[in-house]
Design the sequence.
């Protein structure tokens, strides 16, 4: 086996020079292919001869004749150069129509309601061999689950990302009021007086009756009557259908609920803060063609879903 001292004297340029000389058997033509002067190629050949302790090529007339050692090592060198060329060759473009496998996305339940159906429907059209896996996630554990490989990206309200993550803004999610018009005889837009007088169902993941809505009301010296809290948005429509009450939910979810359950929507009579919904993915996946295609597909589907539902917000220019 060749010792380390010899290997350190041989670099890729020397192996490439040897390969071209084996093909051309002429210094001038080889130098032209390598974009080198003849003196440069001659110097490279000298270094290779010294490293391998063999003449390698003998001048015969105007050409070169390889030695037995050169002929012996040529196939292995060609294989090595071919392997390097294959390794650094740009990957083939991703073709969703022929790909088979899983796409995994993390979303909290309100965004899942708005986007999962349109996403899987479009995915089935473009990638019929693929399967979409939705993973329950929220902003508290989104980054850790991403690092653990639970999904390829998360759609949520994310905090400041780690240096190895990329957070791409998608849209500003405002809130709307929803209610059953058969239970609560109000015409939109709801007045402040009707809003604070009506019973409210609050959505709280930790079981608190005080949310951002109450903080906004408190700023203008008002309060509301919260008669129940639920930890999941899926419980809201049945509760609204059962009793006269109002719930404040994210707009993309609220408009879906209104269509599915014949509920009425109204903009709140007070200003409520909007939530910046973003996509979080790993920096190492930024240039991956399959992952990039899936991220772009979500952006396109979400943009159309927001528009179709009548949401005021749309996908921001940075993501589109």
Sequence:
């Amino acid at each position: 086996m060749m010792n380390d001292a010899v290997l350190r004297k041989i670099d890729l340029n020397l192996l490439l020079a040897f390969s071209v000389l084996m093909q051309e058997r002429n210094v001038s033509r080889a130098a032209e292919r390598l974009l080198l002067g003849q003196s440069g190629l001659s110097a490279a050949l000298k270094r290779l001869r010294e490293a391998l302790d063999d003449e390698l090529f003998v001048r015969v007339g105007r050409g070169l004749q390889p030695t037995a050692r050169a002929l012996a090592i040529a196939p292995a060198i060609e294989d090595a150069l071919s392997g390097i060329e294959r390794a650094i060759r740009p990957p083939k473009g991703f073709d969703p129509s022929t790909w088979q496998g899983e796409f995994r996305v993390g979303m909290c339940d309100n965004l899942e309601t708005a986007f999962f159906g349109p996403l899987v429907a479009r995915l089935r059209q473009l990638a019929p061999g693929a399967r979409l896996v939705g993973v329950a996630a929220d902003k508290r554990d989104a980054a850790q689950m991403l690092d653990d490989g639970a999904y390829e990206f998360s759609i949520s309200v994310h905090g400041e990302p780690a240096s190895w993550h990329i957070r791409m803004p998608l849209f500003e999610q405002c809130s709307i009021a929803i209610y059953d018009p058969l239970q609560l005889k109000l015409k939109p837009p709801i007045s402040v007086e009707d809003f604070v007088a009506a019973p409210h169902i609050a959505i709280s993941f930790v079981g608190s009756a005080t949310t951002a809505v109450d903080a906004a009301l408190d700023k203008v010296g008002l309060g509301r009557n919260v008669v129940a809290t639920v930890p999941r948005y899926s419980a809201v429509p049945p509760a609204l259908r059962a009793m006269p009450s109002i719930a404040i939910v994210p707009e993309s979810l609220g408009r879906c609920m209104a269509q599915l359950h014949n509920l009425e929507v109204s903009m709140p009579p007070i200003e409520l803060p909007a939530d910046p919904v973003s996509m979080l993915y790993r920096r190492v996946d930024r240039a991956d063609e399959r992952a990039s295609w899936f991220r772009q597909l979500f952006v396109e589907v979400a943009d159309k879903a927001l528009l179709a539902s009548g949401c005021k917000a749309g996908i921001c220019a940075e993501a589109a």
